[in-house]
Amino acid sequence: MARDERVAICDGGIFRPDLWHGENAEEGVAIAYQELLKNVPNLAADDIDALCMSYFSDHLNGQLCMGWIVQDYLGLHNKPGYRVESGGSTSIDAIVNAYYMIKSGMFDVVLIPGWEWMCEVDVATTNEMIASAADTDWDFPVGGYYNAYYAALEVRHMQLFGETCEDLGRIAVKNHNNSTRWPYSQWVSQHGTAPITLDDYWKNRMVCWPYRVLNCAVMSEGACVLLMATESKARRFTDTPMWITGVGLGTDSMRPGDRTVDFAYEGMKNEAKIYPDFVEPIKTPYPDMANFGSLHIAAKRAYPQAGITNPLKELDLIELFAPYDGVELCLWEDLMLCPRGEGRNLLREGVVEYGGECPSNLSGGLTASGHPVGATSLYYTLFLYWQLAGKIKAKCGSDGLQVQDARKALITGHGGTGCQGAVVTFESD
Amino acid sequence: MTEIGKEEIKLKVRKIKRTKREVKYKHYPVVDDRSTSAHEYWEPIVNTGLWSIKGHQIVKGPWGGGTVEEALKRPPKEFMVIDRAAFALYSHSYGLVSPFFRGLLEGKLKGTKCPKCGTVYCPPRAHCWNPKCKVANCEWLDLPLTGVIHTFTVQCLAAAPFEHQLPFSMGWVKIDGADTTLAMMLHILPKELFIGQKVKIEFLPEEQRKGDLTDCYAVAVPGQKVPEWACLQKYPKELESLERSMKQTIEFIKKRYGVDNSSEVRGW
To answer: Would the CB atoms of A148 and B153 count as touching at under 8 Å?
Structure first.
């Protein structure tokens, strides 16, 4: 039985995200799988006990049960396998699910293939189909894009806690410039490796105030596979396993507008006193339409498992699921890197930059390096794996943004407007 | 690109045109029928359009794994990209909160109230979500047509069904007396828009109402001053750049839809 053993990420493979690929989804997954097999020469198909397929949308491709196609295409169709889906949370939930599969003692080695092909329908339709993950009776009919919902969340946070549009610009500049050092980045494919400046940001087109194009996640096609295994099996596959030390899940209301009486979060944080007095008080001041309760509670569940008490000091780097730049700032607060309302200080003091105490999204993240939903969290987990294994130079051809002696890292993922989310913490030997 | 004439599409649809809508509620009377001829239009498209092939393109592009640089170094391959169409028309029940949407048709805002904890919901919930109330059945009440802006955004991009209305503001409004907030269109200019602003809820003319949230919208209660802490107006540079973007959007919509959404024409 494997229940008492630790669970490791043992490498993976990437089929880089891009705006469009000639290859179709199953071929993209196969190319990522080829890379995994190259990275883990000891791995044979017989070693894989089960698969957990990660993809978000059926209607983007008009194909149901695409998981079957992929399992078949990889020649792994005699094995146990099923799909995990939860909007933007899909790919992190696939990691969590594979962790549970292994922890249950039923399977020792689980392969997670993840992908998304988001550009078969035109961009407007893709956005509309994604927005049908919002409440189609109550939220979708008013404007109909996540850009707007997230923008409104950020406006509330901005009004309560005082970050500025310039702060949002700084995050955009940080992430895009980080992404130019990551050779799998979608931004690099579309725009090359020249850095951007705040000046470029101010000239950038407005999408939904306060978000400009540079603040918003890109549409991607891409794939990634991760190999996960018990401690005893992991040692056969890699010398540098990345251990999963904590896993936390959380959920929140479907409609963000209901978070003014978010009973499930009542008394969770005593936030009333840091509410500015010009804003009318509401019944449950946390998370309000400002922060992400699902991820706060997920972190509270994951940290004790990992023995983390001071995340800012203990975590060497973090990869946050931020489809819009304000989310990254809010998450620094919800993950308790700083008190609520002080996210802007971490940014302004350079704490979250490369070389800072806790660099955030060195990969470039969803707005620059790519967001093929079902592959997204796998892609950024693999980035963390290569960081903790000290393999960034081997992967980038230069030191890139390797964090020296990185040992502890964290990733988040969420769907909807934070309706569901997960936090996973990692540690190397 | 081969031109497919509009006539050809029309003919294809006409060939199997159905005259009656499919009956789904055989045992239940339809007490009010305001459905449209959309069923006559859509159902044949579903029948002819599902998986129908509309053409293809050959695209020469990069291929294979590895980094961006590695992929671009290989000689490109030619990929065949096929156009396939699929459509659907959903007949969706608003369920136990149907009275809210029928209220919109009559120009009323309705909410629900939990008899146990007293929480007032707008959007209404048929059942209270306070865990202490054990999914209690809520009661209906009429709400005033006034409220306060809880948060907002100004959209220069929207989903296709709303695109012709761009640029516009949407936000969540806490209706007076309610505890939750309702998403709606805000017919308020950005330079006047702020969190905490008092609004009146107005309705489209009766004949234009459809029984959906866009039947109503909020306008500012006159005579309010933008407070100096308001996040949009605090930085004049930001407001200017937003207004510049909105101008570009107005031009784009004029070109694409022939609609003039400038504030002088719209009156807000």
So the answer is: yes
Interface predicted TM-score of the whole assembly (ipTM), two decimals: 0.94
pLDDT at residue A346 tops 70: yes
What stretches of chain B show up as alpha helix (H) in DSSP?
6-15, 38-49, 68-73, 98-105, 160-163, 236-257, 263-266
Query: What letter does residue B127 receive in the DSSP assignment?
Result: B
Residues 170-209 of B with CB under 8 A from A: 170-172, 174, 179-185, 190, 195-196
Phi/psi at B184 (nearest 5 deg)?
-160, 165
Q: Which residue has the tokens 């101010």?
A: A202
State which residue of chain B sits closest to A59, comparing Cα positions: B86
Domain chopping of chain A, boundaries: 7-122+220-237
Structural tokens at position B159: 């989903």
Q: In this predicted model, what pLDDT tens digit does every residue of A11-70 receive, in sequence order?
A: 999 999 999 999 999 999 999 999 999 999 999 999 999 999 999 999 899 899 999 999
Question: Hey, where are the domains in chain B?
Answer: 6-85, 92-143, 146-266
Residue A344 touches partner B, C-beta closer than 8 Å:
no
Nearest CA to A143 among B185, B235, B38? B185
Rounded mean pLDDT of chain A?
95
The answer, yes or no, to whether residue B11 has pLDDT greater than 50, is no
What is the C-alpha to C-alpha distance for residues B202 and B221, in angstroms, rounded to an integer? 11
Question: Which whole-number Å values give the CA distances from A377 to A214, A370, A413, B90, B115, in the listed order?
Answer: 20, 10, 7, 33, 43
So what's the pLDDT on residue B13? 44
Cα distance between residue B196 and residue A91, in whole Å: 38
CA distances (Å), B64 to each of A5, A183, A223, B225, in order?
37, 14, 12, 59
pLDDT at B14: 44
Q: Looking at the partner chain, which of A13, A124, A257 has a beta carbon nearest the beta carbon of B159?
A: A124
Q: Does B101 score more than 80 pLDDT? A: yes
The CATH class for the domain spanning A7-122+220-237 reads: alpha beta
